[in-house]
Amino acid sequence: MAQADDLPPLREVIATHGLAARKSLGQNFLLDLNLTGRIARAAEVEDRVVVEVGPGPGGLTRALLTAGARRVIAIERDERCLPALAEIADHYPGRLQVISGDALAVDFPALVGGEPAQIVANLPYNVGTALLVGWLESEPWPPWWRSLTLMFQREVAERIVAPPGSEAYGRLGVIAGWRTEAKILFDISPAAFTPPPKVTSSVVRLIPRTTLLPCAAADLSRVTAAAFGQRRKMLRSSLKSLGGDTAALIEAAGLDPTARAETVPIEGFAALARAVAAMKAGTAP
Ligand code: SAM
C-alpha cells in the first residue's frame, strides 16, 4: 500500500533513527500500512481526541492522523523514538502531542483535560494487561475514555472476551464484561511485525457500558482474586481467604457453595462483591 502521507517509509524511519527493536520494551513494530489503517478505521477516530500508548516509530500514529483524529496524545517510554515522532508532529501541526515517559505513571484524565478520548494502541505485551485493568477500574464511571481499541497477544484477547464456563474465563473477563462490551475484531499474524513475535495478535474493541451491575470495582477485584486464585476449588473453600462467615457470604450472594469460579457468571461475582461490602459495613444479613 502506498504511503498515505508524505513522510518517509517506516523502514527508513527505523534505519535513520537507529530504532532496533528492544525486547525489554515489548517492541514489535507494525509496519504494514494496510493494517495500521485498518486499526485506525476500526477505532472510529475522526474528529476525536485519541490517546496512543507506545507509538514507537509512529506507524499507527500516522494512520490515526491520516484517519482524521483531531488530536493524538502519544506516550512513549523509549526516548530513541522521540526525534521520529517530532517529525510527525511537525507534519501535522498542533495535532500530535508526544509525552516522554511511562504510561503506567500517567494521569490520563488530567492529560486529556475533560474531553472523552478514544484509546488506541499496539500495547507493549509486558504492561498491556496492567494498563487495561487500570482503564477498566477507572472511577468515576462512565470513564474518561469512550472506547478502547487495543492490540494484544491472542491469548490475552481471548481472556478479555471469555464467557463464563470457558477455559479462558477469569478475572480479566469478569472486569471487562462487567464494565464494557468487548469484542475481538480481527487477528494479525506474527509476520506483520518487525521483529515477528512468537504468537498471533488480536485487535480488541471495548465500549463502556452505561448501566452497570451495582458493586464497587475494588470489592469485585477482591472477590475475583479470591475465587480465581484457586479456580479449581469450590467457592466454599476458595472464598475463605475473604475472612468472615464464608457460608453466609455465599448464601447472601445467592451462589452455590459447591460451584467453581469458572462457572459463576458476572452477575454472581457482582452479588458476591455486594455481600462483601455489606459484611465490611456490618450490614450483612
Ligand atoms: N505503536 C508502534 C507500532 O504499532 O509499531 C509500537 C508498538 S510496540 C508493540 C510497543 C511500544 O510501547 C514501543 O514503542 C515501546 O517502546 C513502548 N512502551 C513500552 N513500555 C511502555 C510504557 N511503560 N509506557 C509507554 N510506552 C511504552
UniProtKB/TrEMBL annotation:
Statement: the UniProt record of this protein carries the keyword Cytoplasm: yes
Entry GO MF terms: 16S rRNA (adenine(1518)-N(6)/adenine(1519)-N(6))-dimethyltransferase activity; RNA binding
Catalytic activity: adenosine(1518)/adenosine(1519) in 16S rRNA + 4 S-adenosyl-L-methionine = N(6)-dimethyladenosine(1518)/N(6)-dimethyladenosine(1519) in 16S rRNA + 4 S-adenosyl-L-homocysteine + 4 H(+)
Database matches in InterPro entries: KsgA/Erm (IPR001737), rRNA_Ade_diMease-like_C (IPR023165), rRNA_Ade_Mease_Trfase_CS (IPR020596), rRNA_Ade_methylase_Trfase_N (IPR020598), rRNA_adenine_dimethylase (IPR011530), SAM-dependent_MTases_sf (IPR029063)
Known function: Specifically dimethylates two adjacent adenosines (A1518 and A1519) in the loop of a conserved hairpin near the 3'-end of 16S rRNA in the 30S particle. May play a critical role in biogenesis of 30S subunits.
Family to which the UniProt record says this protein belongs: Belongs to the class I-like SAM-binding methyltransferase superfamily. rRNA adenine N(6)-methyltransferase family. RsmA subfamily.
Protein's name in the database: Ribosomal RNA small subunit methyltransferase A
Species assigned in the record: Segnochrobactrum spirostomi
